[in-house]
Amino acid sequence: MIKYLVADGLENKQDYVNLSSLTKLDLSNCPIDMRGIEFLADLLTSKSLKALTTLNLMNCTINDAHLLKILQALQERD
Description:
The protein is an alpha/beta fold. Helices cover 33% and strands 12% of the residues. The radius of gyration is 11 Å and the shape is globular.
């Protein structure tokens, strides 16, 4: 069972469909563009990451618009 994942990129949602038990997602030091942010936001609002409690985005070159998209996705989870 996956409990921790370090990813170097996000490509296809189909590759990540079995992440329901993932509790930590470390994307630190991975440059993420708006396409990646939108993909991550979709995952956060889906049931795919329902157990996620920790998301590390340190040094991901995200800007205010990216952060807002992630925050909106996290609010939709509740």
